[in-house]
Amino acid sequence: MAFHLDAGDSDDNSVADINVTPLVDVMLVLLIIFMITAPMLHQGVEVSLPQSAAADEIPMRVDDPLVLTVQPDGMVYIRDEPVHATVLVERLSGLLAQRDDKQVFIKGDRNITYGQFIEIIGLLHEGGIHQIGLVAERLAANG
Predict the structure, then answer these.
(1) Is residue 12 helix, strand or coil?
(2) Which one of 3, 5, 75, 98 has the largest count of C-beta atoms within 10 Å of its C-beta?
(3) 137-138 and 51-52: which strand pairing?
(4) Which burial class, exposed, middle or buried, applies to 108 when counting CB atoms under 10 A from its CB (0-12, 13-18, 19+)?
(5) DSSP string covering 29-43, please?
(6) Predicted TM-score of the model (pTM)
(7) How far apart are CA 13 and CA 11, in angstroms?
(8) What are the chain's domains?
(9) Mind listing the pLDDT tens digit for each residue in 41-90?
(10) By C-alpha distance, which of 106, 90, 100, 2 is closest to 47?
(11) Is the dihedral of CA 96, 99, 101, 106 positive or negative?
């Protein structure tokens, strides 16, 4: 829409519309960049997860889950950061205090022992963390 004031001596027919074409171009480029990079974002440390034949995936209630990763050598990570088992509960309690969702997901490598896995779960329970989820890969369909 053009805005025109009758000033009497104004013979200038200026148009005061905003050209949105460059803005749309920039937004489309940003959209494409985010669409390409979003699938590449993952959380935590890469481990070889065990496989499960569970039929359905559990729906996520939060966008940024708190993931605990256990490596085959027994090293424990909170997201990407290595943490010693003696301070694990203290660090998790501090992170969980800032969150509405108190659930912790554990990604344990398929090569860790059952004892290592139970020790970590035991530490979490002793520290008052009871909402624990286990992460596994979906079993590949044969055929």
Answers:
(1) coil
(2) 75
(3) parallel
(4) buried
(5) HHHHHHHHHGGG---
(6) 0.56
(7) 6
(8) 51-138 (3.30.420.270)
(9) 666 667 666 666 665 555 555 567 888 888 888 888 988 889 988 888 89
(10) 106
(11) negative
